[in-house]
Design a protein that fits this description.
- It is a single chain.
- By secondary structure, the chain is of the alpha+beta class.
- It has a four-stranded antiparallel sheet with strand order 3-1-2-4, with helices on both faces.
- The protein starts with a strand and ends with a helix.
Length: about 170
């Protein structure tokens, strides 16, 4: 994820016409692409009118692509998002959408750390001890029962069995 800009362009032919763009580079280069790409609706408007889009508002964001999605999610046109290149929107709504985009943060789900400390927590109350070196969930490790008997098992499988036993006793 690279930071960049979310920006809104207005076209001189219509004061409500907008094009929302984002870039991790310069806004100038992104605007140049918008104005010259006649295969997109925004570029076709430039070709038809002879007038370029102008940046009217811009914000710095941590995740430009996600910020653009958040902008459209906040808009009254959220159901249509992705179905158009340009749209019509008043300044008040643009400001509100930019504010939401500025606040938007992608939720990063982190997996719980399944390290040695986690394994020892799973063994708490069972009397089973970790004897060998813990090298992850799927690498066999030596354990010891409370009576001293030793066994080798894949930690993930052992935790699964212990969880089943806990469920049965509840």
């Amino acid at each position: 994820m690279k930071s960049g800009f979310l920006f809104v362009c207005r076209h001189p032919s219509d004061p409500l016409l907008i094009k929302v763009g984002y870039t991790t580079g310069t806004i100038k280069k992104a605007l140049e692409r918008i104005n010259t790409n006649a295969s997109k609706e925004a570029g076709q408007i430039v070709k038809d009118t002879g007038k370029d889009w102008k940046v009217s508002k811009k914000i710095k964001v941590d995740d430009p692509s996600y910020a653009k999605s958040a902008f459209w999610d906040a808009s009254s046109q959220h159901a249509l998002r992705g179905n158009f290149d340009v749209s019509r929107m008043a300044d008040e709504e643009v400001d509100m959408c930019l504010n939401e985009a500025q606040k938007a943060r992608r939720k990063v789900e982190t997996k719980p750390k399944r390290d040695k400390n986690w394994m020892l927590q799973q063994l708490e109350g069972t009397g089973i001890k970790l004897i060998g070196n813990y090298r992850g969930l799927i690498t066999r490790v030596e354990f010891e029962y409370p009576d001293g008997e030793r066994f080798v098992e894949v930690p993930a499988r052992l935790v699964q069995m212990l969880n089943r036993l806990r469920e049965e006793t509840e």
